[in-house]
Amino acid sequence: MNLQQLFFVPSKFLQNEKWMNVRVGDIIKLENNHFVAADILLLSSSEPYGLCYIETAELDGETNLKVRQALTVTSDLGADVAKLADFNGEVICEPPNNKLDKFTGTLYWRDNKYPLDNEKMLLRGCVLRNTDWCFGMVIFAGLQTKLMQNCGRTKFKRTSIDKLMNTLVLWIFGFLVCMGVILAIGNTIWEQKVGRTFSVYLLWDEPIRNNNVVFSGFLTFWSYIIILNTMVPISLYVSVEVIRLGHSYFINWDRKMYYIQKDTPAEARTTTLNEELGQVEFIFSDKTGTLTQNIMVFNKCSINGKSYGDVYDEFGHKVEITERTDCVDFSFNPLSDRKFKFHDSSLVEAIKMEEPSVQEFFRLLSLCHTVMPEEKNEGDLVYQAQSPDEGALVTAARNFGFVFRSRTPETVTLYEMGIAVNYQLLAILDFNNVRKRMSVIVRNPAGHIKLYCKGADTIIFDRLDPSNQVLMNTTSEHLYEFAGEGLRTLALAYKDLDENVLEEWMKRLLNASTVIENREEGLADLYEEIETGLMLLGATAVEDKLQEGVPETIACLTLANIKIWVLTGDKLETAMNIGYSCNMLRDDMNEVFIISGHSVSEVQQQLRLVSSTVDVEKTDEFSEDSVFEETIIAEYALIINGHSLAHALEPELEQVLLETACLCKTVICCRVTPMQKAQVVELVKTNKMAVTLAIGDGANDVSMIKTAHIGVGISGQEGMQAVLASDYSFAQFRYLQRLLLVHGRWSYFRMCNFLFYFFYKNFAFTLVHFWFGFFCGFSAQTVYDQWFITLFNIVYTSLPVLAMGLFDQDVNEANSHRYPSLYRPGQLNLLFNKRQFFLCTLQGMGTSFLLFFIPYGAFCLVVRDDGSHISDQQAFAVIISTSLVIVVSVQIGLDTYYWTAVNHVFVWGSLAVYFAILFAMHSDGLFSILPSHFPFIGTARNCLTQKSVWLVIMLTTVACVMPGLACRLCRSRPRSRTSDSCGGPGAVHADTVARCTMFSSDTLVRLASGLSGHCVKKQCGLVGLCFGGLPMRQDCNYQLGRKKGG
After folding, report:
1. So where does this one cross the membrane (predicted)?
2. Is residue 641 within 8 Å of residue 596, measured between CB atoms?
3. What is the pLDDT of residue 786?
4. Is residue 607 in some structural domain?
5. Is residue 415 part of a domain?
6. Same domain, 955 and 988
7. 578 with 537, same domain?
């Protein structure tokens, strides 16, 4: 890319140059559809007023066009190369950083200074669109560009299984050293007491000949370290990554997670966290655009104390609005949006009657925004809005006769009831998550100066003139009603400004906007100063409907014992309404606690009151020896405001908040900032031994997405920043259920089975050498030939275990959805842990013991058909290796729940390949070609053609697999505790039917890690739960704990 060509202005003429030669301060020319070569300050363009359009897909993934605008003083330079070459402005700006949405700088030119921000910058990686040309000055180049600054090292997320594997590998290495020490000591003793008698015809090496048997033991130690090194799973990490990659492709290829309306498939943006998806206990979700559609529709409003938007019949009763309800006729306005619907005709009548407050209301909506209009045809307006809220409000003003038509850096043009009106734009007081409001200062054609402000009602009300008290009370009642219907609300206000006061304020604004350090703080103070003494106009209510399938998804995830916390910036009433809409809050809940304290002491008192209420309910029911670690008998919800949350997150209160919130079934945090979202996630992540998942769709969710163990981005209406910061992405919240309960649970189940079998076969294969050491004088002689040792893990057993790790499933996807409680073993980390590792190593050691001693014991009795003994060591090795391959193949066959054609080919094909290679290595052909590498000619043929040998192999195979089958038989009987169950990871969830347990939706139970074992018996159409050895039986459904009120 650095070799691409561009034009730059070194003198009075344009010259061609490569990207790699661009330097800071160069003036360069960009043409339509060309990439931006560096971070440049836009000077001029082919569009009026220095506008240009860019696509930032390479930066933030957003494909919608964005507008950038040059300073008025530089836009006059146009395409005049001579003027551009003489441009001698000086830019002082912030140092290089990775903040794509922020730039602070000042241009000094012709004895004046001009503030610079991100809206005047074109960043490297952008593409110029719909603009013939533009010129710019290079501010950052090469590694200093924001794109390259974002290419730094990202935080690597590791799963709990990764950490466990690292620990287990260290344990195995320690075990290997212990085995080496034991065998070395054995060699030293053997050489001292027995080996001397063989020294006559088995000459010792020089050091040992000098009675240094310790040195012999030292050499033996390292020899056995080399021989037993196959016990250390060097290939484990490679196999794990291959399996994870396969699981990621399964997610990417899942058609049931493909959103056809936007052509958006699910995407696994990482391959390292798949099994962690099967262990999630906490989900932290944004509301707008995540649970809701983020498609805003202007629904209701309050203007000067009167509410608009409801429809009434002839008797004055409110009528429910449906698709059949008549819409307002906007034919009086030729510029109206035909898609816009509104049902209350009284608002149109008020507009036509030219009521001043109504006109001022919609004038504010058409002026106070950052929307850019695009007029494709005459009267065919398309608004490019940074947020769906702004687009909805400007569209509403357009339909009610106040049409936003165009803007320049200094003017805004409206069509007010068909008449063009130009307003001089004096200042824009930007919105941010801290201010939660936006203002514009304009001068109307009559010369009057006004400040128009819109923002969160609590913020606006704090800045109203005291004379607005009565109107504020009435508007507050309307806002409460709107929020109760789940609508997003904003308050609107204005202020008349004095010319002299504004002039003095503008001077200070110019000074504050041209400083480099603490510019934002200085501007915020000035904004705060002028946004006081406001006059209330009214409020807007915008509808944001729930996405399809959200209530059902939340209900299913709740049954899987996943706690869902909603973190939203909306007001309390709106958040509560959404909570009821998606069934997180219900009328039959015992109590909904609202934390709204304004001080640390108030918040502490309220939290402890909640905690004591839940604790009383809890301790009355269960004794101290209950098998439940935390049992929440009744259902509670906790709702906490942003200002209260700020106090609750103080170090002295955060543990109280955490403990109290975890006792409640539903937690909703409203009016929270992006930083508070991340703090809540970090609090749970740090203090709870639980996997956390954060899901959101906007830039304000990025911090919590990065903080959680797993981050999920929704590709919605607010751009792609959340997706780019996430580990997994898709288009609809409902796909989260499939991601966790199907892909996540399968990935965890497969990975655990894979690890169990992998360690088992390695121990079974390697420890045969340990037992053989006691019969070969601890001489470090191997049982198998070198070719078998080389090929065992690479050829004979690698593919079957990979097939298990990729395709195995204990239940199908339908049952995974139908029985959410199947998700519990992953949350409790039951399928593979240190205890399961101990069991698999124990099983591997037992298998190795039987693999060696059964053939060894039978060797004295086994004879050929002609009566001669099978007494050579190589024949013994063939019997053991053949038994080993058959045993591990049968074992993986027994451990596989779901057989595919790939499993059959890999398992039985590996067996066939083993015998083909075995006979080939012992054949005359290879011996004649490489006699030194394949000296054991005919051994396999002579050995495996004997019936007695196959009888020994069959006896060894049966003896090795029978303990596992016996354990499976034990699992079909009630056990006193899960810890008493035996066998592999399947032990904690037995057979498919035994795992299909259900928890009642109105009971919330957290089980201890030592949860009693369970199984299900199906008899006479009833489902019985064997819990702690005591069967509890109900028709179809059963529950743990007690119901509310009972």
Report:
1. 168-190, 221-240, 754-775, 787-807, 837-856, 876-894, 906-929, 949-967
2. yes
3. 86
4. yes
5. no
6. no
7. no
Residue 717 has what pLDDT?
A: 66
Given the DSSP bridges, would you call strands 15-18 and 5-8 parallel, antiparallel or unpaired? antiparallel
Q: Dihedral sign, CA of 354, 360, 366, 367?
A: positive
Q: Are 36 and 57 in contact (CB under 8 A)?
A: no
Q: Exposed/middle/buried for 922, CB within 10 Å: 0-12, 13-18, 19+?
A: buried
Residues 833 and 894 in one domain: yes
Q: What is the pLDDT of residue 366?
A: 95
Task: Answer for the pair 423, 438: CB distance below 8 angstroms, yes or no.
Answer: no
- Side chain identity at residue 824, one-letter code: R
Residue 271, marked binder: no
Q: Is residue 237 part of a domain?
A: no
Of the candidates 139, 134, 132, 133, the residue with the CA atom closest to the CA atom of residue 118: 139
Q: How far is CA 34 from CA 4, 8, 739, in A?
A: 10, 14, 39
Instruction: State the SS3 of 358-424.
Output: HHHHHHHHHHCCCCEEEEEECCEEEEECCCHHHHHHHHHHHHCCEEEEEECCCEEEEEECCEEEEEE
Query: pLDDT category, 206, cuts 50, 70, 90?
Result: low
965 and 1005 assigned to the same domain:
no
As a whole number, mean pLDDT of residues 964-993 equals: 51
CA–CA separation, 948 and 959 (whole Å): 16
pLDDT score for 974? 46
Q: Which of 39, 60, 254, 286 is the catalytic position?
A: 286
Closest among 143, 192, 135 to 7, alpha carbons compared: 135
Q: DSSP E strands: which ranges in 231-322?
A: 267-268, 280-285, 297-303, 306-308, 311-312, 318-319
Residues 272 and 302 in one domain: no
Report residue 283 as tokens: 């989900």
Distance CA 714, CA 712 (A): 7
End position of a domain, from candidates 543, 578, 597? 543
Specify whether 964 is located in the same domain as 861: yes
Cα distance between residue 125 and residue 857, in whole Å: 73
Alpha carbon 486 to its chain centroid, in Å, reads: 27
301 burial via Cβ count (<10 Å: 0-12, 13-18, 19+): buried
Asked if residue 701 belongs to a known ligand binding site, the reply is yes
Check: CB of residue 224 under 8 Å from CB of residue 232: no
Residue 818 annotated as binding site: no
Query: In the annotation, is 286 catalytic?
Result: yes
Give the span between the Cα atoms of 840 and 356, in whole angstroms: 81
Residue 507: both structure tokens together: 């001077």
Indicate whether 72 and 92 sit together in one domain.
yes
Of 924, 944, 971, the domain-final residue: 971
Residue 677 labelled as part of a binding site: yes
| Each residue's pLDDT tens digit, 253-312 | 999 999 998 889 999 999 999 999 999 999 999 888 888 887 788 999 999 999 998 887
User: Closest by alpha carbon to 221, among 253, 181, 257?
Assistant: 181
* Phi-psi domain of 91 (left: phi exceeds 0; alpha: psi -120 through 50; beta: other): beta
SS3 of 721-755: the string is HHHHCCCEEECCCCHHHHHHHHHHHHHHHHHHHHH
Tell me: is residue 163 an annotated ligand-binding position: no
Contacts of 727 (CB under 8 A, 6+ apart): 157, 268, 269, 270, 273, 710, 711, 712
DSSP 8-class letter at 204: P
Is residue 431 part of an annotated ligand binding site?
Answer: yes
In this prediction, residue 561 has a pLDDT band, given cuts at 50, 70 and 90, of very high
Facing residues of 1005 across strands?
631
- The answer to whether position 395 is within a domain reads no
Residues with Cβ within 8 Å of 42's Cβ and at least 6 positions away in sequence, in order, are 50, 52, 68, 69, 70, 74, 120, 121, 122, 134, 135, 136
> According to the model, what pLDDT value does residue 572 have?
81
Question: Contact, 745 vs 823, CB < 8 A?
Answer: yes
| 569 annotated as a binding-site residue | yes
Whole-number pLDDT of residue 359? 94
854 in the same domain as 760: yes
Domain interval for residue 176: 164-232
Distance CA 873, CA 859 (A): 11
Whether 288 has a binding-site annotation, put simply, is yes
Question: How many domains does the chain fold into?
Answer: 6
